[in-house]
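Write out the bound-state structure for iron/sulfur cluster.
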Amino acid sequence: MSASALTASAPRTTNSAASKGAFDLSLEGIRLCRDAGLKVGVRFTMTKDNFQDLPGLLKLVEDEGIDRFYFSHLNYAGRGNTNRRDDALHQMTRSAMDLLFDACREYQERGLNKEFTTGNNDADGVYLLTWLQARFPEKLEHIRKKLVQWGGNSSGVNVANIDNLGNVHPDTMWWHYNLGNLRQRSFGDIWLDVSDPLMAGLKAHPRKVGGRCGACAHFDICGGNTRVRAQQLTGDPWSEDPGCYLSDEEIGVA
Ligand code: SF4
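---
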């Protein structure tokens, strides 16, 4: 490649210029969809570098009349049990969840109809109960039953992923684990085949998970959270989820 070509392409690859352009163009697209009467949503994956943007994004959702906000947890794998209560990233996650729950409550009180979804951490349901306990204790039992009915993580059960080559995976995070290919077997055959050890474990009810998940008082709500996170960190998909941000007291193992 020539020096002039490198120079010419440089501005399009610098982060600040690219992100500014992408933001403005995305917002323009959102406005066009909204004005055409389409239901629109924004998705936010939180990291320690963008945590401070969350209040501004929630304001944007309101100012722009956006219908749906999807909050995705980043996989904070690698952080063990030590100092879980004081861990800055876990505290950040808890603050973000408080912010979301408070925003939902405020929207409801003001009669604004918006949908909020959180993803990639099934401990959110349990954390919602701790939030309710302090604010609406009379609702606790009803919401708990709803969460148990939901049943927590459902990768390999109610969630599936088929990649661009036709390979089937338990969900989008399991692309390194191939259950079979649709050109060789039907989806039904692949999906119900519990001779595969991972699928046998995911479809077990309740799942057999070890560590603090196995001892957790809220396993029926969370289902042991994200198995791929445990597998990636420890090599064992049935060990506890290292992404749990709840304290030992909150899960009843203290
Ligand atoms: S300890 Fe495990 S099962 Fe319990 S809330 Fe945390 S991730 Fe879920």
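---
The radius of gyration is 21 Å.
The first strand starts at residue 41 and ends at 46.
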